[in-house]
Design a protein that fits this description.
9-stranded antiparallel sheet, Beta-lactamase, about 450 residues, Lipocalin, alpha+beta, 7-stranded antiparallel sheet
Length: about 450
């Protein structure tokens, strides 16, 4: 494992990485590289890596423990538990954890020191973007709400709750050093980024740092395995991974095949991905064979490393569940953009069709927005004011950004335009799971 991890980390310019595999009741780990490029400090099995959004399953598990204890119900309006939510629409904990509560993509930049309770009291009503229970739209504020729920019921700050209720029982080394994220470019050495930019308000959505070993033990605990045994009773554990997006008008396109109350679905596997500032993390769990695979990487090309790793592991074992980020455009979507056999296909001679100018416009999801412009037969997408990128558009209005060249190029991402069922005009765009409404 170490030789493979070292080879792939060097290929993709990742300064340091960890791989952990739980299989046949045994946990194997491998580490390579440095905590920070040029520091001489080696990555060890205990080194913590920024998880980004892979924090969310930990927060979801905290709430699931409360569900198992009877303190909260997955399907009752959360406003009954959190008074700060009474000014907004009714949604449930299951909807919050599965990104189907209709909430905004991101929180507006909060003042330093704003507590989750104070922020929700002031801004909860502003977070409603879609009708609850109708569409999937990835939401960080939803996990701010979940973290606040944990605080309200346990009386603990979220960080203390996750330490005492999850990390400590799973054997996490709280004194371990944390790896620095790095910006990786094809033509320059990796550049350390330093501190992660997650505001404390959003820690329940993206603030954890743990090792790949910790991730594998956490995943195994969701199968009732490991030194601590089961985290949850079997029914509650299943509820966390049962897909709730089946039948919704808009599913988890571009991120996963489906989503449960905390876990994303990749075929028969469940798990989650996370990205921070110059860091990536990945976790996959396969209940049928009780297999867990976890990767952490402290480079912005960590997702490239993950894809290469999956390809190499596929040569000697079963295919690990994943949702393709790089590849062909889809020519039909009977269920959430999937063709009848679930495979991706090229459309048009060059893999895309002429870009429909009718998709040009301004789209927004809360404070998160993007602009699409038609130029010379192409569509150019600019997200949150960033430099525009050209879209490769499929016949069904699905799209991806160009892949870039070489193993150190940035990963593309998938999206799609959606038409108004009544008028047929494009009225929404879904990018990295976030569903934005057309503004003009």
């Amino acid at each position: 494992m170490k030789e493979l991890l070292t080879e792939l980390a060097l290929r993709h310019g990742v300064p340091g990485a960890q791989l952990a595999v739980w299989r046949d009741g045994l946990l194997s780990t491998a580490e390579t590289g440095e905590e920070e490029a040029g520091s001489g400090r080696p990555v060890t099995a205990a080194t913590a890596f920024p998880l980004g959004s892979l924090t969310k399953p930990f927060t979801a598990t905290l709430t699931a423990l409360l569900v198992a204890d009877g303190d909260v119900d997955l399907d009752e309006p959360l406003a009954e538990q959190l008074g700060e939510l009474r000014a907004g629409p009714d949604f449930t904990l299951r909807q919050v954890l599965s990104h189907t509560a209709g909430l905004a993509a991101n929180t507006a930049e909060p003042p330093v020191g704003t507590t989750r309770a104070r922020w929700l009291a002031r801004h909860a009503a502003e977070q409603a973007v879609h009708e609850p229970g109708t569409v999937f739209s990835y939401s960080n504020p939803g996990y701010v709400i979940a973290g606040r729920l944990v605080e309200e019921i346990t009386g603990l700050d979220w960080a203390e709750a996750v330490r005492t209720m999850l990390l400590r029982p799973l054997g996490h080394d709280a004194g371990a050093p944390t790896a620095s994220g790095h910006l990786v470019r094809p033509d320059a050495p990796p550049r350390p980024i330093g501190e992660q930019s997650v505001p404390p308000l959003e820690d329940p959505a993206a603030g954890l740092c743990v090792s790949a070993r910790d991730l594998a033990v956490f995943g195994a605990a969701h199968l009732g395995l490991g030194p601590g045994g089961a985290l949850l009773d079997a029914a509650t554990a299943r509820a966390m991974r049962e897909d709730v997006t089946e039948g919704l008008a808009v599913g988890a396109y571009g991120l996963a095949d489906g989503w449960g109350a905390g876990w994303s679905r990749y075929g028969d596997w469940f798990g989650h991905d996370g990205t921070g500032d110059g860091a990536w993390s990945h976790l996959r769990v396969y209940p049928s064979t009780r297999t867990v695979v976890a990767l952490t990487a402290n480079g912005s090309t960590g997702a490239r490393l993950w894809e290469s790793l999956l390809g190499r592991l596929r040569e000697t074992g079963p295919e690990i569940g994943d949702h393709p980020r790089d590849g062909h455009l889809r020519d039909g979507h009977p269920r959430d953009g999937h063709s009848q056999d679930g495979h991706l296909r090229e459309t048009g001679g060059g893999g895309s069709v002429p870009a429909p100018a009718e998709c040009a416009g301004h789209y927004a999801n809360g404070d998160w927005s993007c602009r699409v412009e038609a130029e010379g037969g192409d569509l150019l997408l600019s997200v949150a004011g960033a430099a525009p990128v050209r879209l490769l558009v499929g016949a069904d209005l699905s799209f991806r950004t160009p892949s870039g060249d070489g193993p150190r190029a940035a990963m593309p991402y998938l999206g799609r335009f959606l038409r108004d069922p009544a008028t047929g005009a494009p009225d929404r765009v879904q990018i990295t799971g976030r569903l934005c409404l057309r503004q003009g």
